[in-house]
Write a structure and sequence with these properties.
5-stranded antiparallel sheet, elongated, 202 residues, alpha+beta
Amino acid sequence: MGAGVTARRVGTWLLLVAALAGALGFSILRATLPSDGARVDFYGDAWTAHGVRIAPIDAPAAGLRAGDVVAAVAGTSMEAWLGEVTTASAPRPDAADPIDYLVDRDGAEVHAAVTWAAPPVGATLLAGWSVLLFSLATAGVAAFVYARRPNEPAATALVLCACGAAGSSLPWFLGTTVSEVVEGAPFLLHSLITGPVYMLLW
């Protein structure tokens, strides 16, 4: 077996492992980092200059409701927080204290003191068991086929599809939260996994 073939096989396996590790890493971050539970709505006009509309999987933190449009957190607009996601030195609010959220609720501006806490990811994953099963099954089938027929171009294509589908499905289902946008790094990780990794599918 030539060096080029070996490198391709190793690279294919590493890509699959990296995609699954990214999905697992994001899930662990979601389970361990303090959160407001305010998952950003997926579709429509969720992201606007005015704020970010939330559509939580579970109940959001006290003070927030599904359908709220979060305009500002700790006195800083959501648009400004989005501009700071790549700035590691940007000051972030202390998650140990209640944080002021400015919310548009049914046309009225409301201030809410929101306390971040570890979210019930276990319950969320249980509710989304089909997404988890799909991710594991897709990766398992692709790994099995590739291990048996590594020289078949279709087997390599199947692994690439599995990287895109299995690597991004769970993070996409969990979504990103307002608190992750404020923290910056978790939002960036989510964007990388559900963006470039998902594009491998196509």
